[in-house]
Each structure stands twice: as C-alpha cells, then as structure tokens.
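Entry 14. Ran structure prediction on the chain below.
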Amino acid sequence: MILLLLLLLLHVPTTCKGVITTAVTQCSSASYCPATCSASSYAPISGTEHKLMGNTTGELQLQNSVVRMVNAVEKRFGPVTNNMEKGLHLSFQYLCCYNNTERKRIETVMAALRWHPVKVRFTRIVCAASMALGLADPAAQGALFGVVSMIEEALAIAGLGPRVRFRAEQAPFHVSLFNAAPLNNTHNISDVIALAQSTIAGSGSLNVEPIVVDYFEFNGKKFHAVGADHGAS
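Output, structure tokens:
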C-alpha cells in the first residue's frame, strides 16, 4: 500500500512566470522498521545500500541536480533540514530486528547470490513523511525489486526471512533528498515538492546518464554484481 501511494500521489507540477501551480500532494507515511525490537540485542534496522557519491557521469549529474534543487527550495521557502547533498545513497533493504550473529549469517547468504547490475535514473520527486525523495525510474524499480526479492527468498530459506515486513511493503527505491517541511511552516509541502520537481523539468531526471548499481553494502562489506570487479569484500 505504501509503495502504491508513493507512486501515485504526485502529478508532475508546472510553473508559469515563476509561480508554482497548486499540486495535489499528500506525503505518504514512512514505514521501514520499528523503533525498538523485542530484545535489546536486536538492531531495529540494518540497511543494505549503494552509495551515490562517486565520480561517474550519472552520479555527478545527480549530485549537481540535488544542489541546484536544494538551493532553489531554500531561496523560495527558507532553510531545509536533513539535507542529504553529502550523503546520497540508494537503499536496497531495510532489514529489521537482527542481532550480530544473524547479521553475520546474512552476510554468508548474500555472498553466495548472483545478480546483475541495474541502471538507474531518478525521475520523480515525491515525499514520504516529510522527506523529499527522488524515485528510481520504473524499469529500475522492477529490476531492483527482482534483486531484493531474490535476497529475501534466500534469507527465508536460511531461516532469516523478514522479521517485520517485506521490502515491497516499505517504499519504492529512491534517493532521499531533504526534509520538505520548511522550518517556518508557512508553506505547503505540495508547493515545495512542486518547485523541486520543476528544477528537473528540462531533462526529466536528476541524472540523464544512468547510474550503474553494481554493488550494495551490508554490515561493513560490499557485495558485487556479476561482472563487477570484486566479490564480497
């Protein structure tokens, strides 16, 4: 349900003479992992992610687009919080409530899997809770969900299946950008999201050149796709 809401809740906004049109926008709720687990030895969340702060053409385009976007939003609406300009990443999974021993077993499962690189463009700006997100394009969504579903199935076979919810119940694949609720609370989030989207109206994407996602990190280790330079490291 969360995935469906995020994918459908925002139509592409337009601007006219610098004035933002009214967008029908409501931020979906964000449900990843619980704040606490049944035992203190279990970490509420253990993420797998691909960092987007490299020097490939696509990554540089993404980074520059986010800087321009945040600058435009702050110029119109004032300072934002949780600015992710220096920490852009794509989360593969939000693994809930595993202890250290189990995370080591998860490493072993992940190291045995074979998957192929996925090309990603971030094309649509939405909000979850009050965080502005750039959604991965539809083709990438399908390919990334295929990878994660394979991981989830392998974990289930190993007795380490999802403790709280599957990835498809959490959120579509995205890059987190900034908190879309202005600090002064005098503007609607819909206007902030509309302006953010308008900054990429020309290209239709935060990165025109696709970013090749060929690894993810978990528990301090990297797990590479087939054809990448390394295996788990």
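The domain at 31-120+137-224 is CATH 3.90.1140 (Cyclic Phosphodiesterase; Chain: A,). Will compare against last week's run tomorrow.
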